Task: inverse folding
């Protein structure tokens, strides 16, 4: 499984200026719908916010993996944003979040969805990778890092 199956350079943004978790999730929802026209951004946002109410998807080190199940979604789709400034995300380490990788998955998705979440969590646990992402200056460079990452060891 490769991240290139779930994300493309058009769903990556850097230097987004938002002041809250809600606005970050709205940005991600809009970004996903750029090439997922069969799904409305408000449906994606509602799914992401509903998942956040169950518990924060802030995994630590300034990263979050918001995700949600969507009716009428045919495949797992991702989007990535890097924020200008971290926002309170109720992350497990209580640190602000400045990088988010969002996923929407088909309503009936199970195993593949969990595998993708585990892959992204592994990426964000890699300190060297985190630093490279924070210093990448454009969507193309971020896309390359995301799609070429290999688990250390």
Result:
């Amino acid at each position: 499984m490769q991240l290139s199956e779930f994300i493309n350079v058009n769903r990556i943004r850097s230097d987004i200026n938002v002041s809250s978790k809600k606005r970050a999730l709205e940005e991600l929802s809009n970004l996903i719908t750029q090439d997922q026209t069969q799904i409305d951004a408000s449906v994606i946002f509602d799914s992401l916010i509903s998942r956040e109410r169950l518990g924060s998807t802030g995994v630590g080190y300034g990263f979050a993996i918001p995700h949600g199940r969507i009716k009428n979604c045919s495949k797992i789709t991702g989007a990535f944003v890097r924020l200008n400034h971290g926002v309170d995300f109720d992350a497990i380490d209580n640190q602000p979040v400045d990088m988010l990788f969002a996923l929407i998955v088909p309503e009936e998705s199970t195993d593949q969805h969990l595998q993708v979440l585990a892959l992204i969590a592994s990426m964000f646990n890699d300190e060297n990778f985190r630093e490279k992402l924070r210093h990448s200056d454009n969507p193309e460079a971020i896309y390359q890092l995301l799609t070429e990452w290999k688990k250390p060891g």
